[in-house]
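Tutorial handout. Part one gives the primary structure; part two gives the three-dimensional structure as C-alpha coordinates.
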Amino acid sequence: MNPQKKFHLVFSFVMGAMMISLMTFVITWVNVGLGADFLSRWMRAFGIAYMVGVPVIFFLAPVARRITGQLLGVKPA
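Part two.
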Protein backbone atom coordinates (compact mmCIF):
# COMPACT_ATOMS: atom_id res chain seq x y z
CA MET A 1 0.00 0.00 0.00
CA ASN A 2 1.47 3.35 -0.97
CA PRO A 3 2.02 5.93 1.78
CA GLN A 4 -0.76 8.25 0.56
CA LYS A 5 -3.39 5.49 0.61
CA LYS A 6 -2.14 4.29 3.99
CA PHE A 7 -2.37 7.86 5.32
CA HIS A 8 -5.94 8.20 4.05
CA LEU A 9 -6.98 4.88 5.64
CA VAL A 10 -5.45 5.72 9.03
CA PHE A 11 -6.89 9.27 8.80
CA SER A 12 -10.36 7.78 8.29
CA PHE A 13 -10.07 5.64 11.43
CA VAL A 14 -8.67 8.47 13.57
CA MET A 15 -11.09 11.12 12.30
CA GLY A 16 -13.92 8.66 12.72
CA ALA A 17 -13.01 7.96 16.33
CA MET A 18 -12.74 11.65 17.21
CA MET A 19 -15.81 12.92 15.38
CA ILE A 20 -18.09 9.99 16.12
CA SER A 21 -17.22 9.83 19.82
CA LEU A 22 -18.04 13.52 20.26
CA MET A 23 -21.23 13.41 18.21
CA THR A 24 -22.61 10.23 19.77
CA PHE A 25 -21.77 11.55 23.25
CA VAL A 26 -23.71 14.77 22.66
CA ILE A 27 -26.68 13.14 20.94
CA THR A 28 -26.93 10.37 23.56
CA TRP A 29 -26.73 12.98 26.33
CA VAL A 30 -29.46 15.09 24.71
CA ASN A 31 -31.73 12.10 24.10
CA VAL A 32 -31.38 10.12 27.36
CA GLY A 33 -29.52 12.36 29.82
CA LEU A 34 -26.66 11.32 32.07
CA GLY A 35 -28.48 8.43 33.76
CA ALA A 36 -27.08 5.20 35.10
CA ASP A 37 -27.20 3.54 31.68
CA PHE A 38 -25.65 6.48 29.79
CA LEU A 39 -22.28 4.81 29.23
CA SER A 40 -23.74 1.60 27.80
CA ARG A 41 -26.11 3.56 25.54
CA TRP A 42 -23.28 5.81 24.37
CA MET A 43 -20.96 2.88 23.65
CA ARG A 44 -23.71 1.14 21.66
CA ALA A 45 -24.38 4.30 19.66
CA PHE A 46 -20.64 4.78 19.11
CA GLY A 47 -20.16 1.21 17.88
CA ILE A 48 -22.96 1.47 15.35
CA ALA A 49 -21.94 4.94 14.17
CA TYR A 50 -18.26 3.98 13.89
CA MET A 51 -19.07 1.02 11.65
CA VAL A 52 -21.02 3.33 9.35
CA GLY A 53 -18.95 6.50 9.76
CA VAL A 54 -15.45 5.26 8.95
CA PRO A 55 -16.35 3.98 5.48
CA VAL A 56 -18.30 7.17 4.83
CA ILE A 57 -15.27 9.27 5.82
CA PHE A 58 -12.98 7.05 3.73
CA PHE A 59 -15.04 7.47 0.58
CA LEU A 60 -16.36 11.02 1.02
CA ALA A 61 -13.26 12.84 2.34
CA PRO A 62 -11.68 12.97 -1.15
CA VAL A 63 -14.94 14.27 -2.57
CA ALA A 64 -15.15 16.93 0.15
CA ARG A 65 -11.54 17.95 -0.56
CA ARG A 66 -12.29 18.27 -4.28
CA ILE A 67 -15.45 20.32 -3.70
CA THR A 68 -13.64 22.56 -1.21
CA GLY A 69 -10.81 23.07 -3.69
CA GLN A 70 -13.30 24.03 -6.38
CA LEU A 71 -15.15 26.45 -4.08
CA LEU A 72 -11.91 28.14 -3.04
CA GLY A 73 -10.20 27.91 -6.41
CA VAL A 74 -7.24 25.94 -5.07
CA LYS A 75 -5.86 22.51 -5.84
CA PRO A 76 -6.35 20.17 -2.85
CA ALA A 77 -3.27 18.44 -1.45
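Part three, for discussion. The chain has a mean pLDDT of 94. Residues 8 and 64 are 13 Å apart (CA to CA).
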